[in-house]
C-alpha cells in the first residue's frame, strides 16, 4: 500500500481548483482536436482544384496554438517561480548591504563631527537608504508575483501569513536597526539635521512597507469555498502511481501507460479525486489532466490583479 499523508485544506483547495481547470482544459483539448480533424477533409477540396497554397493551413495553426499554450508552462512555470524567488532573495541581500553602508556613512559622519545634513557623509547615508528601499520594494514585487503562481500551502495560517508578508518583514529588517542606531546617536546632531534624517528614514520605511505588503492573500473561507466548488466539478476516477507526484485522468497517459494495477502487484492506483488528495497527489498531469493549461489560467488570472 502507498503511504498516505495528511494534506492541508489550502493544499487541497489549490489542487482541487487545478483539477477543475485541468479537466476542462483536457476536455477542451480533445474536442478541439476532433473538430480540427473533421475540418481537414473540407479544407482539402478547394485546395485540389484552385488554390494549392491554401492546403489545410487553417486547422493546423489552431492545433499548434493549442499545443503551445498547454505545453509552454509545463517547462517554464516551476522554473519561473524559482527564478523570481531567487531574484527576490538576491535583492534583499543587496538591501541589507545598503543598510550596512548607511551604518558606516553615519558612523563616519559622527567621527568627523558632521552637523549639516548636506555634508557628504549624510548624503551618502541618505543615498544608501534610498537604495535600501528600492531593493526591498523590487524584491517584494518579485516575491508577490511568485506567490501568485505558486502560493504557500502550509496548514498553519500563521506560516502562510509570514510567507506571503515576507516582503514587509524584510523591510523591517532592513530599516529598523539603522533607525534605532540613528535615534540612539541623535543627541550628537543639531535639531534640523536630526529632524531631516529621521523624517527621510520614516518616509522610506513606511513607503517600502506599504508597497511590499501583499493585500491579496486568500482567506480561509475563500480557500474552503474554492475547494468545495472545484471538487464538485472535478468528479470521476483519477489515477496515480506509487512514486509519482501527479494524478491522471487518462489511464492510457504515456506517463502511466503499461503500469500494473496495485491489485495485481503493481504500482498503479485508481480512485476518486479525494483519494488522490489523501495520497498527497494534488498536481494535475500536464499531459492528460490539463495541468499546464490550469497553471496558465492561474497566471493569466493573477496578472490583472497586479
TrEMBL record:
Signal peptide: none
Pfam families attached to this UniProt entry: SLAC1
Positions of region (Disordered): 22-77
Assigned keywords, A-Z: Membrane, Transmembrane, Transmembrane helix
Membrane-spanning residues: 89-110, 122-143, 163-184, 196-213
InterPro entries: SLAC1/Mae1/Ssu1/TehA (IPR004695)
One GO CC annotation: membrane
GO biological process, one term: transmembrane transport
Protein name listed in UniProt: Uncharacterized protein
Amino acid at each position: 500500500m502507498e503511504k498516505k499523508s495528511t494534506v492541508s485544506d489550502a493544499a487541497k483547495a489549490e489542487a482541487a481548483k487545478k483539477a477543475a481547470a485541468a479537466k476542462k482544459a483536457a476536455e477542451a483539448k480533445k474536442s478541439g482536436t476532433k473538430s480540427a480533424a473533421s475540418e481537414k477533409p473540407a479544407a482539402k477540396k478547394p485546395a485540389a482544384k484552385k488554390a494549392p497554397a491554401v492546403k489545410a493551413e487553417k486547422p493546423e495553426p489552431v492545433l499548434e496554438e493549442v499545443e503551445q499554450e498547454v505545453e509552454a508552462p509545463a517547462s517554464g512555470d516551476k522554473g519561473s517561480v524559482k527564478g523570481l524567488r531567487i531574484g527576490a532573495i538576491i535583492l534583499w541581500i543587496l538591501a541589507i548591504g545598503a543598510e550596512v553602508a548607511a551604518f558606516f556613512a553615519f558612523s563616519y559622519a559622527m567621527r568627523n563631527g558632521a552637523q549639516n545634513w548636506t555634508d557628504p557623509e549624510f548624503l551618502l547615508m541618505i543615498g544608501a537608504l534610498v537604495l535600501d528601499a528600492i531593493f526591498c520594494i523590487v524584491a517584494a514585487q518579485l516575491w508577490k508575483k511568485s506567490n501568485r503562481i505558486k502560493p504557500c500551502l502550509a496548514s498553519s495560517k500563521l506560516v502562510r501569513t509570514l510567507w506571503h508578508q515576507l516582503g514587509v518583514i524584510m523591510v523591517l529588517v532592513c530599516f529598523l536597526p539603522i533607525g534605532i542606531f540613528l535615534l540612539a546617536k541623535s543627541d550628537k546632531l543639531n535639531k534640523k539635521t536630526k529632524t531631516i534624517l529621521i523624517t527621510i528614514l520614516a518616509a522610506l520605511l513606511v513607503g517600502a512597507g506599504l508597497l511590499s505588503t501583499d493585500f491579496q492573500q486568500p482567506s480561509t473561507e475563500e480557500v474552503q469555498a474554492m475547494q468545495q466548488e472545484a471538487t464538485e466539478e472535478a468528479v470521476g476516477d483519477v489515477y496515480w502511481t506509487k512514486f509519482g507526484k501527479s494524478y491522471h485522468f487518462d489511464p492510457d497517459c504515456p506517463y502511466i501507460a503499461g503500469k500494473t494495477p496495485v491489485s495485481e502487484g503493481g504500482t498503479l492506483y485508481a480512485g476518486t479525486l479525494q483519494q488522490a488528495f489523501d495520497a498527497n497527489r494534488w498536481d494535475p498531469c500536464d499531459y492528460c489532466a490539463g495541468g499546464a493549461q490550469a497553471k496558465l489560467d492561474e497566471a493569466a488570472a493573477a496578472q490583472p490583479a497586479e
